[in-house]
Amino acid sequence: MTQLLFLVAIFILFSKAYSEEFYKNITSTSCICSTVPCPTSGYNYLTTGGGAVGKYYYSYHNGYPVITSASITITSSNLDTGTDTTSCTQDYSRMLDDDGVQNCDAGHILANRLGGPGNQPINIFPQDASINRGVWAQFEGNIYDCIKGGASSSSLSWTFYYETTEHTKPYKATYSATYIGGSCVKVSETFTN
């Protein structure tokens, strides 16, 4: 039994060291996603499936570009035009998941159903799976329903918070939505991550 525990401990240490070395060698200039643009420090712009242009601001933390804020205005033409994540963006998200657990989703900043591309690292961040599939998804669903229900547009904004500049996974994010037309009112919510 002692030998088995020793072997398991060695395997865990080797796996952790291997993955840390693998991810340490990835830089923004040799991005894990070689076929699509990866974020760089400063403003990055991304066109959605529905034609809206999002403005994403990245800064460097621990040698990696991380999302600090984003904004976009969407209309009904953006709805249901997004894409799912890919193995590339899932790997990109895991690279930034610095809590040592590697259990996060590759979360869309702008939701797939709101026109957000899942195949572009600029629109992806490491997101707690229960938040991504729970309260965050419900918040996005309300935005979707407001646009479907008569709002002519919605201006969305996000602010991401990090414990220190050494961390690459945000510990919380504030998501805000304002509407033109329809009966929906401005909403803003802060989510833990």
From TrEMBL:
Type VII secretion system protein EssD-like domain sequence ranges: 82-148
Coiled coil: none
Pfam family, one: Endonuclea_NS_2
SUPFAM superfamilies: His-Me finger endonucleases
Regions crossing the membrane: none
InterPro entries given in the database record: DNA/RNA_non-sp_Endonuclease_sf (IPR044929), Endonuclea_NS_2 (IPR044927), His-Me_finger_sf (IPR044925)
Name under which the protein is recorded: Type VII secretion system protein EssD-like domain-containing protein
